[in-house]
Amino acid sequence: MKRQRLKQRALSLWLPDWPLQRVRLERPALKRCELSLYCQQHGALRLIASDRYAAGTPLAEVVRGKVEQHDPDADRETLLRLAAWCEQFSPIVGIEPPDCLHLDVTGLDLLYGSEEILVKKIAESFQRRGLGVRGAIADTVGIAWGVSHYASQPWSIVRSEALFRSLPIEALRVVDDVAVFSELGVTKINQLLAIPRTALASRFGSELIKRIRQAIGEIPEPIVSHRPPPKIQVETRCEYPVGDRCELQSILSGLIQRVAAELARRQQGALQVRCEFQSERGPLSFTASLFRPTSDSAHLLELVVMQLDRIAIVGPIDCVTMAVTSHAPLTTWQQELFEDSRREESRRVGLLVDRLSNRLGREAVVRSIPQQEAQPELAVRYEPLAGAVRSKSKRVFSKIVRPLHLEIQPRPIKALAVAPDGPPLQFHWHGDHVVRRACGPERIQTGWWRGRYVQRDYYRVETSVGKRFWLFRELRSGKWFLHGAYD
């Protein structure tokens, strides 16, 4: 029988006025007096938190209560100790500075009896420590964070998105754009979600869209434990300086065997491996990148040797260090009676990408990522195939026909049109072309917030000899450009 996967649940704990709470936690004598904390802001001493005064008040205006200097490093260290203490409630506890903790409580309702009992136990534990806290349990970290900060009740268990959608926009963890939304009369999350995402992306960028998708569960936002895993790093100090490449390869082979064993023990695969050589003439290093995570020592050694062949060793080596700088969980497959040709083809493609990336350079082997962008030359971005964890983002393809060949930058051409706003009748591009048919115009323009204002009328044209091009007229100057060609 197939085991049903538990639905993810996250608990967000917010400690209001955490700098003040932290000082009183360490110095109980200050609990009964008014307290203010200050720091240097914009060249002046101002309050960062206070029981009596507003944040940002100049220190010279404070006439009552105890005044202390704010220590952000102490705030973080105490928050980390509090996260370790919270491991009695959940095995995975992460921090979101400066004043928030996230607990993965998936399936813990079965252990405690219900989420209500778990929340009650946590609230009582914080109360015994003398800490004020607000919390919320939800399906995503984004919803839990927003409800814990902006809901009317100090503790909430969210079963649907209705409560979250009624909260102010600040609950999405976006700070820079709040003032702009307020001017537009958009103050609630449900109002924001009613706006098309394409319009939001073009005006406010990708960060706002990311927060929306994280909150509603379209892209994952895992809780990263505050205890980072031990670093995978091995080292060999040579008894005598080594300058022969064959000896270096032997040393690297031994180090890779140790790295591969540790990766296999953790069920992790390397995505980037960094090697560093120490010599009298200074350090020398290189990085091998992979398309898919692997703990195969033979494959790792092949890529490391490729990188070794690309560098010049200027002196004898005293010490060799190898570290895994990026890794991801290994993908395991069930053994099959008959070999899957598609899986074998995928494995070979991965090996090819690894070899090309390490032979030519990581930035030379890339993939294209379509973007929701009206301006054609910005509709695609490129990222290296090797050395990074690839997210399964939703591909965005335009339903409008676009040329397969697109110029990196539009090419200026000379064109003749009868009507000022009409299609071209002929143009010159590596020879004269007479237009037999034209389709358009398709107007593309960007908003004022993009800086350089773009206003273009595009035409798909077919010449008398059957060639098809993508041309546009720049509306402000009236000049013509060739942007692409159809096969």
Task: Offer a concise description of the structure.
This protein is 29% helix and 31% strand. The chain has 487 residues and is α+β, with helices and mostly antiparallel strands.
Walkthrough of the structure:
There is one protein chain. The protein is α+β, with helices and mostly antiparallel strands and 487 residues long. It folds into three domains: 10-215, no CATH class; 233-329, DNA polymerase, Y-family, little finger domain (Dna Ligase, domain 1); 405-486, no CATH class. It has 13 helices and 20 strands. It has helices spanning 18-26, 72-85, 108-112, 115-128, 141-150, 162-165, 178-184, 189-193, 197-204, 206-215, 245-266, 297-310, 341-360, and strands at 10-14, 35-41, 44-50, 66-69, 93-96, 100-104, 134-138, 155-157, 233-242, 268-279, 282-294, 317-329, 366-370, 380-384, 405-416, 426-428, 432-445, 455-463, 468-474, 480-486. The longest helix has 22 residues, at 245-266. The chain is globular, with a radius of gyration of 30 Å. The mean pLDDT is 87.
Architecture blueprint of SSEs:
Elements (H helix, E strand, L loop, with lengths): L9 E5 L3 H9 L8 E7 L2 E7 L15 E4 L2 H14 L7 E4 L3 E5 L3 H5 L2 H14 L5 E5 L2 H10 L4 E3 L4 H4 L12 H7 L4 H5 L3 H8 L1 H10 L17 E10 L2 H22 L1 E12 L2 E13 L2 H14 L6 E13 L11 H20 L5 E5 L9 E5 L20 E12 L9 E3 L3 E14 L9 E9 L4 E7 L5 E7 L1
Parallel strand pairs: 2-4, 7-8
Antiparallel strand pairs: 1-6, 1-7, 2-3, 5-6, 9-12, 10-11, 10-12, 13-14, 15-16, 15-20, 16-17, 17-18, 18-19, 19-20
Helix pairs in contact: 9-10, 11-12, 12-13
